């Protein structure tokens, strides 16, 4: 975690710019109990990306905020997809285990059959 002056140096931005970005919701650094901003390495990378989008791509701050929000939404959706995929895989394993138990129970229920052959002849009564 970095104080605002160090974060400004690492990101190549002015400390006042970091405060503005915080107010706009572009970057949300952690806070100390006294309210001081503390920037993580992820925050620094995000600040650099904001600067790149602004200077190199010509995107305005509202556009950058929208891009960041969409990227966060995509990340959240990817995490949800991964979570659901793991749940489906676990359910599949559970279903296979349940099926195996059912099939195993069939084997215990089998009754031996005598190996005899018999011939039955059926002759219906004729009504005259």
Sequence-ordered SSE layout with sheet pairings:
Layout (H helix, E strand, L loop, with lengths): L3 H8 L3 H10 L5 E2 L5 E2 L2 H15 L5 H49 L19
Antiparallel strand pairs: 1-2
Describe this structure in words.
This protein is mainly alpha-helical and 128 residues long. The chain has helices at 4-11, 15-24, 41-55, 61-109; strands at 30-31, 37-38. The protein has a two-stranded antiparallel ribbon with strand order 1-2. The relative contact order is 0.08. The mean pLDDT is 90.
What features would you highlight for this structure?
single chain; 128 residues; mainly alpha; two-stranded antiparallel sheet; 4 helices
The SSE order reads HHEEHH
Largest sheet data: 2 strands, antiparallel
Which strand order do you get reading across the main beta sheet?
Answer: 1-2
What count of helical segments does DSSP give? 4
Mean pLDDT: 90
The proportion of residues forming helix, as a percent range, comes to: 55-70%
Structural class: mainly alpha
Short characterization:
The protein is mainly α and 128 residues long.
């Amino acid at each position: 975690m970095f104080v605002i002056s160090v974060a400004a140096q690492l990101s190549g931005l002015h400390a006042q710019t970091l405060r503005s970005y915080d107010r706009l919701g572009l970057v949300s650094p952690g806070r100390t109990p006294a309210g001081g901003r503390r920037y993580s390495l992820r925050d620094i990378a995000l600040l650099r990306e904001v600067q790149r989008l602004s200077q190199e791509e010509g995107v305005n701050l509202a556009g950058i905020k929208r891009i960041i929000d969409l990227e966060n939404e995509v990340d959240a959706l990817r995490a949800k997809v991964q979570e659901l995929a793991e749940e489906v895989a676990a359910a599949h394993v559970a279903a296979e285990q349940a099926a195996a138990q059912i099939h195993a129970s069939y084997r215990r229920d089998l009754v031996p059959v005598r190996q005899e052959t018999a011939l039955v002849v059926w002759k219906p009564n004729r009504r005259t």
